[in-house]
Amino acid sequence: MKLESLNLVNFKNYLEVxxxxxxxxxxxxxNNGVGKTNILDSIHxxxxxxSYFNHIDSLNIKYGESFFxxxxxxxxxxLSYKTYLAYEKNKSKVIRVNDEICERFSSHIGKFxxxxxxxxxxxxxxxxxxxxxxxxxxxICQFDKLYLNHLINYKRxxxxxxxxxxQFFKKxxxxxxxxxIYNDQLVVSGNYIFNKRKEIINLLKDKILGYYNSxxxxxxxxxxxxxxQLSENSFSDLLNKSIEKDKILCYTSSGIHxxxxxxxxxxxxxxxxxxxxxxxxxxxxxxxxxxxxxxxxIGFKPLFLIDDLFDKLDKNRVSSIISxxxxxxxxxxxxxxxxxxxxxxxxxxxxxxxKFFTIKNNKVDEEIF
Length: 369
Description:
The structure is a single chain. By secondary structure, the chain is α/β, with parallel strands linked by helices. The chain has two domains: 1-113 and 302-369, Rossmann fold (3-Layer(aba) Sandwich), CATH 3.40.50; 120-300, Glutathione S-transferase Yfyf (Class Pi), Chain A, domain 2, CATH 1.20.1050.90. Helix content is 43%, strand content 24%. It has eleven helices and 15 strands. The protein has a six-stranded antiparallel sheet, with helices on one face. A hairpin with a 2-residue loop joins strand 1 (2-11) and strand 2 (14-20). Helix 4 (145-171) packs across helix 5 (176-215), helix 4 packs across helix 7 and helix 5 packs across helix 9 (276-298). The radius of gyration is 22 Å and the shape is globular. The model has no long low-confidence stretch (mean pLDDT 92).
């Protein structure tokens, strides 16, 4: 898959800007705060119909304007897809692909798959279980529509079941038959989600170690452990056993919405013992493993977006990473950094196909090197 062109109008700090990209590596360079990351975020919008950083569409409109739009042209297996996304204040968001309007945004997910790596990836290790669940869900939803449907259904059922539990508590009344209606549906969706998460986490586990040690010059043992209540009990039994607790708490205390993922280095918690460099290397290796898995599942190469490549990595490791991702195993790549000269030194002896875009005062210039 390739993103051939991109046009932004009133998107974040850009009044209007156009890009024509290299088929391989595209660097966005400039000082912190000039809007490099905003370009990556516009690509995320095209993939997921929302921002990676701010899900409130109105806050992504350039100050003083009433709308933003993102136009692009993708190429997948020699087929061209003109994609248009726009949002206007007090109106609905619109997505069109080849002039066909997307009626349900969830159906758009997976059409233009991406992997994105940012400094926020540290939250995968240091943050809440919800962040780790979201990570694995986003990966699977890009290639498994049934998983996405079950996930949407599961969240809806949990919300409705919790409302019902609150009503029972207020009315001092309980109907087991009503609860069973939700339980039966939750079990179907919950089991599918559990089994797919377990499968994909095991596949990631098999791939990540090689990236971490060979690419990033470490010699350590790392591990990923999927933690779920469904590993030890059937979902139906869990719901039945926890019903008295749920009636008091007024919410559903058991299920795959309580899942978590633990990361280990040399048998110890990555969160507690890993250095910043180790954690950065781990999350980047995890993204490489995610890319390899997604590529296999969809049958073509997704886009790879890397924000602030040098964050917590030295020049030698960054040089190794750029050499690695320039191979044919990877497709089109978009990278932000603050130092043009530093990047030039790294790639000066390579035959990479690349473009530089330097950003200053909300203007973009294409550098020739």
